[in-house]
Amino acid sequence: MEYQYPFSLDWSKDEVIDVIKFFELVERAYEKNVSKEQFMITYKRFKEIVPSKSEEKKICNEFEESSGYSSYHVVKKAKEAEDGQSITMK
Predict the structure, then answer these.
(1) How much is the pLDDT for 1?
(2) Res 59: pLDDT
């Protein structure tokens, strides 16, 4: 991994950790797989920290530019997946 995770200086230490966990699960969806439930719980927490759609898009685009991993596509696939299913972007 040769990139940095996007974050805001306004976030608390715990919020930064939770946002990083979200992006780690996006990575895992591309590299291995992640359960829908685990991903959606983490995404829900991410949305509590970043409730604005425009801010979410900005942060996720920063992550995609540096990593090549699309948070948008993983979230979309997770929302479409059935309960109990694993998400993989391979």
Answers:
(1) 59
(2) 97
Q: Per the structure block, which two tokens stand in for 19?
A: 């946002």
Alpha helices in 50-82 (DSSP H): 53-67, 71-80
The two three-digit tokens of residue 23, written as one number = 């992006």
Sketch out the chain's domains with CATH numbers: 13-80 (1.10.220.80)
Residues 49 and 52: their CA atoms lie apart, in Å, by 9
Which tens digits make up the pLDDT trace of 7-49?
999 999 999 999 999 999 999 999 999 999 999 999 999 999 9
Q: Name the β-bridge partners of 87.
A: 34
Kindly tell me the sign of the dihedral angle through the C-alpha atoms of 61, 56, 73, 17.
positive
**Tokens (6 digits) for 6:** 């996007």
